[in-house]
Structure formats: structure tokens, C-alpha cells
Amino acid sequence: MTTRSGSVDPGSLLWLQREAGLSIDDITEALSQRSGLLGLSEGLSSDTRELVKAAESGDSRAELAMNVFAHGVRRELAAEATSLDRVDAVIFTGEIGWDQPELREAVCSGLGVIGISGGLSGNRDDDGTVSPPSAAVPVLVVRPREELEIARSTMTALHS
User: Fold this and answer.
1) pLDDT tens for residues 44-63?
2) What is the DSSP string of 22-70?
3) Domain at 1-84, CATH from 3.30.420.40, 3.60.15.10, 3.40.630.10, 3.20.20.70
4) What are the boundaries of each domain within the chain?
């Protein structure tokens, strides 16, 4: 969530209204426009690329936002794993998965409990397995190639 809050304790919303005097519109705007990565970084950015660079430069706001983000991804992956008989692989794609090796590493390095580990190889040009050969659960990176889907959809529409 780049600007939205994600999960929030409903009691905190009531507290904001009652104790802080915020209106429903104020709360709605804060939850949808000023939360997430943007809120965690205290308004620095909602773009993970900018936050990764800022965190690497020592910006504690960016570091906090990235740590919370990675923790949230780990939490969701672990929760999904409880619904499966086994985890065959973890596949990253899209802007964050493809273009953010720092985030892939941050996510995977905290998932040893479900057989996923850090120590990933690969950079922004690699496509394929990025986990060590000995990994219990392989980690892969797949370039999104969204332009191919757009071309397929266009061809289908033209030939319909």
C-alpha cells in the first residue's frame, strides 16, 4: 500500500474521531491518501524505488517504511503458506518484484520458518531463479512483460 493504510484497528478510528476531533472525511482522506509507505516515511515518498535509495543513504524514515513493508509481505506469505500442503516456490514480478532486489532480499531473509531464505542473487536484469541452489524453496523473478499482454489483447480486439 503506497498511500493507503492497509489493516487498521477499528478502535483507533473511533479514537481519532472522538479524542482527536477528526471528521469522517478527515479520517477517510488520511487512510486513503496519507498512509501506507507515504505515511510511514513521514511524507518522504510512496515510491519504493525512492525509499530504497533514501534508506541506503541512511534516511531512518525510509528505512522504517521499507522494514514495515517487508514485514507485511512476509506476514502475508507466511499466512498463505498455512493454507497449503507445501510451498513449491516464491515468484516475484511487477515493479517491486522485478525492479527491487533489495526488497526481495528483505522479504526472503525473514522467511526461514517456511523454508525460504535470503542470500539471493540477481539484479534488475535477471529473469529466473535467484535463490541459492541449496534453497529448500526456490525464489524466482519473472519480468512482467505487460506490453505482451497489451499486444495480445489488442490483437484479439482487432480480430473480433
Assistant:
1) 999 999 999 999 999 999 99
2) --HHHHHHHHHHS-HHHHHTTTS-S-HHHHHHHHHTT-HHHHHHHHHHH
3) 3.30.420.40
4) 1-84, 86-160
Name the nearest CA neighbour of 70 among 22, 107, 34, 99.
Answer: 107
Kind of pairing between the strands at 139-141 and 90-92: parallel
Cα separation, 87 vs 85, in Å, equals 7
pLDDT one-digit tens code per residue, 4-27: 998 899 999 999 999 999 999 999
pTM of the predicted structure, to 2 decimals: 0.81
Q: Are 45 and 37 in contact, with CB atoms under 8 Å apart?
A: yes
The dotted CATH code for 86-160 is: 3.30.420.40
